[in-house]
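Build the 3D complex.
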Amino acid sequence: MLQLPLVVTARLDLVLVLVTLLSLWTRLGGLGYPGAVVFDEVYYGQFLSLYMKRTFFIDDSGPPLGHALLALGAYLGGFDGNFVWNRIGAAYPCSLSVWSLRLLPALGGALCVPLGYLLVLELRCSHLSALGAALLLLLENSLIVQSRFMLLESLLIFFVLLAFFSYLRFLNAPGRCWSRYGWLLLSGVSCAAAVGACPFQGGLSRVTRGQPLQVAFGSQVTLRSSAPRPVPCWLHSHKANYPIRYENGRGSSHQQQVTCYGFKDVNNWWIIKDPARQELVVDSPPRPVRHGDIIQLVHGMTSRLLNSHDVAAPMSPHAQEVSGYIDFNVSMATQNLWRLEIYNREAESEEWKTIVSEVRLVHVNTSAVLKVLAGSDVTAVAEQSTSINLDITISHDASPAGQEQKEREAELHSPTHIDVDRKISFWSKFTELQWKMLTVKQEESEHKYSSAPLEWIAMETNIAYWLHPSSNAQIHLIGNPVSWGVANLSLLAYQLLAALYLLRRRRGFRDLPDGAWQRFASVGLLCGGGWAVNFLPFLLMERTLFLYHYLPALCYLHLLSPALLEHIHTHLLSSRTSRHVLGVCTAAVLLSVFLSYWTFCPLTYGNPELTANQLQALKWRDSWDILYRRR
Amino acid sequence: MEKEECISQWHKTRDSSIVRNRKVFPSPEQTHQSPITPESKIKQDDTPCSNGSSGDFSARGSADSPNQLLLIVVTGLSFATRLYKITEPPHVCWDETHFGKMGSYYINRTFFFDVHPPLGKMLIALAGYMTGYDGTFPFVKPGDKYEHHNYWGMRGFCAMLGSFLPIFAYLIVQELSRSHTAALITAALLIFDTGCITISQYILLDPILMFFIMAAVLGMVKFNQQSSRPFTAPWWLWLVLCGAALAGALGVKFVGLFVILLVGLNTAGDLWRILGDLSLSLVDVAKHFLARVVGLILLPLFLYVLVFAVHFALLNKSGPGDGFFSSTFQSRLIGNNLYNVSMPEYLAYGSTITVKNLRIAGGYLHSHWHLYPEGVGAKQQQVTAYLHKDYNNMWLVHKPDNDTQSQTPDLVRHGDIIRLEHKETTRNLHSHLHQAPLTKKHFQVTGYGINGTGDTNDLWQVEVCGGRRGDLVKVLRSKVRFLHKATGCVLYSSGKTLPKWGWEQVEVTCSPYLKETPSSQWNIEDHINPRLPNISLSLLKPNFLEILLESHIVMIRGNSGLKPKDNEMNSKPWHWPINYQGLRFSGVNETEYRVYLLGNPVVWWINLASLGLYLIMVAVSSIAIQRGISLQQKRLEHSDILTGGGGLLLLGWLLHYAPFYVMGRVLYYHHYFPAMLFSSMLTGVTLDTLLRNADLLLCQPYSDWLQRGGQMVLLFTVLHSFYMFHPLSYGMTGPLAHEPGSAMAGLKWMDSWEF
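Done.
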């Protein structure tokens, strides 16, 4: 039965609407500028192209949700994957809708602001505090910069805040309310999304991309020693022979040297050859190399075959020498057959896979194992573990030497055509990927704009994202210095206040009514805890870190500041005048936050161009890198 | 049925009343003041089968004499196992080569550098000195025969301290669990652990360190015990002993920080309890607080500083450690080239100089005949900072154009443009717009040109910090900066260690950030110019606090610089509790006398299992209490012991184990031993509590049998495994373990064990 009149009652928080609009305006305005690759876009863009071409890849930077979202935006914008992401600053082609690539992260970033507003309300603070938090988030230059490009952090922050918000909604909702569990569900979903979008490591660390997973006969590979050593080293050979006699008078085979080399080099490439056939190309379809196969390894640059024989190795005389075979006609026959053993295989006929497989090369003639010997850092030698009788089982189990290997995206064979995943179930794919993402070894390196976690708190560092090819217009990741100061100050003030309260309560002074005390404690636990959880783990990480890793933690501090101020206002200040003073101070601080936002706007939006003197004036800290073009 | 329960109750109450006696009776005259007493009296009253206090007294009287007897047995066994075959093998084993050598340095009063604080080595030296070792044995490498040198004193001293570990463990566990059997289990585990024996028998820092750690824990536990009688003599005594032991632990190795953390946390909890006790006035609370500050902070700090004062007073001769320290520091060492130095006072053109970075442990500006490898900036000659004195640290000061030598050389002034030529390779100090090898924000510094001919990138402007244009550059005393003329960057030592290609020396860069930091400041240390008169320079002698600070920073740098090397085996923390791999102390092949540091696997695996068991037991008891299940008094007490005493031990284990997971430095198996002591103590508490609750499973007489039986089986297992594995500690010769004739035949249970 229809009841008339049909009425819809809507309540609209105009402040929230206003804040949202402002946020959309700051994040989405002029999104297509600059029409060039900005900073890590060069990194995520590569994945984007791979997605567009539906190529399987391994990425150590994190789970694929973020990439997939970016790819979705690109798909909707009609990006076909045909763009070479090779350097920062490369101009996008006109056909490419830059706007659509950047839309999704910008939306995520923009929605963080109303979410912050709602979160502070959920923490049972007043609307004024909520507005304060929203303004701090709105005017945070670093969040704006990070949102406006094809980067993942803004999505990550959005999901983190969403999870936090919906969990609070769940807690605060009246019991036995059906929608309560909806919020719990949403919280769980956004947690998963946050983890899924979380870039474990952004930055320009190169990963193995676009490589076939499977190693086939004819593949070009580099073989990395998996022996525990600080720097990785690759099986290497070069056009130099072992000396006829060593300094101590021992003789050698005088054949080509084989070493383990710690730098990437063209001489690290080897081709896998089937001993039964002469040609080196990959068949179509490729014939995978499996556990137990007999192979030969051809050195790419010198065409020598990896060989070993009963000659003492240069540094470790108890082991066999490994060489690139040269036929000197001195009755030294070739012994260049190697049996492949996949150390971490699950099935007996497992295929050799890129990176994942740890393999061991067993010399067929002598049953020795290819190994980088400790002590002789540059010599790969075949080692016989038992000296007299070749007890095969012992000799194999005693030396856990293996090689991880990498395969070049070979011009021989396009990677896109290998379809290895068809038979694998979703779960095995899933677990394999998880494990791989956690275990892919990272090479520790420093980047020009990388920084240490402790530098983030005082924002002693910045990141130059983009510089106009001809003018001084540039975009930097620089936070709003005033609001960072406010954030740090409120964290410190909260800790001091909490310590004071705790000590006094322990002595029986109840300064606050129980309800207020619990609210104060929960605000601190949630916001301060959120900050700690998002910041402290970085102190223990040994990877390349950048300023933008601090942004999620910073958001929590921006939620804490207004909540703390409100607490001071209601519970610590009793007289009317002091409350007025606090109000005026707050207004002044907000004004200066806005002013400093305005000051740094040219570096945030890359527009307008500044003169060198103006840029110099913006260098508030000596440690900031701001670029000047010499005229 | 009821009667049976009553009997069992009676047993329990007797047990628990012993416990309570220990809590309450030590101070009968204070019982009316103690806040615990009324509560425990009530507890006593509501146990219906209690037979009054006469039985309790007799129980207590009889409890003390077996205690002393057991303690004597533990002491005897402990000393016997540690001192047995102490002089075997008569050659240098493993790290004896370091610590024995450092002992000799003290006896010879030669300055050296080590990453550990000095107390341990000083004690070793003292022990050696007292037993007639004269410091002449060179300790070159493991395997060197001692021959006529008196090494037994140093080993014996370490073994003596190591022998105290089971005794301390016994006392600690007894205090925490109030059970002889728990204490005895712990002592047995430690006495018969081959690892503990081996590590105690050689000239190492570990037995000394563990002695102080255990002493500190014992002091802390005893001090906690006195909490009902604050400010009495025993209370002060244990406080001071604990503080002194803390200073000792930190004075031996920085690992001592973990036990300081343990004591600190315990003390913080204690103070929190006191603060919450509203019957105490704030003045009392302040007294408590100050007493702990004095006993646990000021006293240890004083002792620790005292150790360093003795260290600096003893080592007054120049030695191998000089280069790690600043020029002023070196000037106090007899025999150093800066001791009562005389050289030309002002820097001049044509001089040969060494340039030292002012960053602590910054090193000398250095170059050598090696190029940067491909892919690391330009492939030119490396320039590094090097901590040792070396002829490759020498540089020549030139004018930008080739010098026109006048009779008296011109002096270098603030603002002058100079060229620094490396004396050995005749390359100029050079920089250009390539990234530095490690610090990518900075520019690369290389050696460039030949015979002093280079290009404009070889020019550097000299700037005296705080000076004005025209000021002269004072040797040793001026802080100098070198600004690169072409790029405007400043010569900088980043302190990062270069990889193998850079010979693990320190990176030198050119920093575009012009802030004045010690890293970008240098001083001229050696200054040779035959055409200028040498003048005796009295350096500012550094004061003690400066020396102390400097030596600490150098030590910390040294510690974090101990990165895993390629050819060293790299032990991972998760290897340790499962006893995955030991360390070769001596001997490799069949003919040699082999000693292998490996914990008794039975003991270690019992420890590991008990950790899990402990967590399960705590979870079960907490859940039971949380759900309000009414438990007998005895069970509640057991639960208290588990969470209180056991929790403390678990915390100790965690604090001594978990930090290794985040440590970047190279790790060894023996780093686990302090944690292993805590783990063994926890095992004692856990297994004892488990066996005492055997009556949950069986009824009265059988449960007692089960308890006794379990204890016997445990003791026998430990003893038998010790009998099997004792050759690991006491040495083995002959065939290796995988051959049938070996003493260890069939005992190589894990392939990773190398004996």
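Chain A has 16 helices and 14 strands.
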